[in-house]
Amino acid sequence: MERLRRQRASHLLAGTTLPRMRWGPENPVCAECGFDWAVPASSAIDIVAACPATYAAALAGVSPRPAAENGRWSAGMYLWHVVDVLHIGVERLWTITLDPDTGIPCWDENGLAAARNYSMLSIPVGLHALRQATANWVTTATTTPQDLTTRHDLFGELAAIDILRRNAHEVQHHLLDITGRSLS
Residue ranges of the chain with pLDDT lower than 70? Predict the structure, then answer.
């Protein structure tokens, strides 16, 4: 909690606010993508494990570097975001296993997208990166005890299963962003 207070104070001094996390499980099922926040670890792992194939199919025929439209991220930008989500997910699972007292800070997906210049990154390279990130994530997720916990600056105590579910939600949700479909 003290870390969150310090982080909020530094944001206030800089004239910014902490990022609002929009992907928290406020309801039992995501109204946009249908993700069930109570899925067991095995199902969360299966969702992520399948993403290289489902994303490759969804991105077939898409321009190698599609531009963002109307201020929305392009399909390629969502692909690279998911690559980063899985990389960060692995680091979070390592943190929960190796140094849980450190806790997990918030991160700003738009800041990371700008720093990495997602709009200029290649879809074929992104699909390769997704395969690599997925393999690493699945290996880490299957070897991390699900009951381990750490602190998150915004959400408080998180268990490994929470991290698995959040990452699986990102994978499922952003597939709909890429295809331009929704459940509603």
Answer: 1-24, 64-69, 181-184
pTM, to two decimals: 0.84
Tell me the backbone φ, ψ of residue 136, rounded to 5 degrees: -65, -45
In a domain, 132, yes or no: yes
109: containing domain: 29-179
What are the CA-CA distances from residue 178 to residues 32, 58, 86 (Å)? 13, 7, 17
pLDDT at 7: 43
CATH number of the domain residue 135 falls in? 1.20.120.450
- What one-character-per-residue DSSP string does 12-76 give? HHHT--PPPPS-S-SSSB-TTT--BTT--HHHHHHHHHTHHHHHHHHHTTS-SSPPPBTTBPPHH
Q: How far is CA 58 from CA 52, 61, 147, 156, in A?
A: 10, 9, 34, 35
Structural domain contains residue 103:
yes
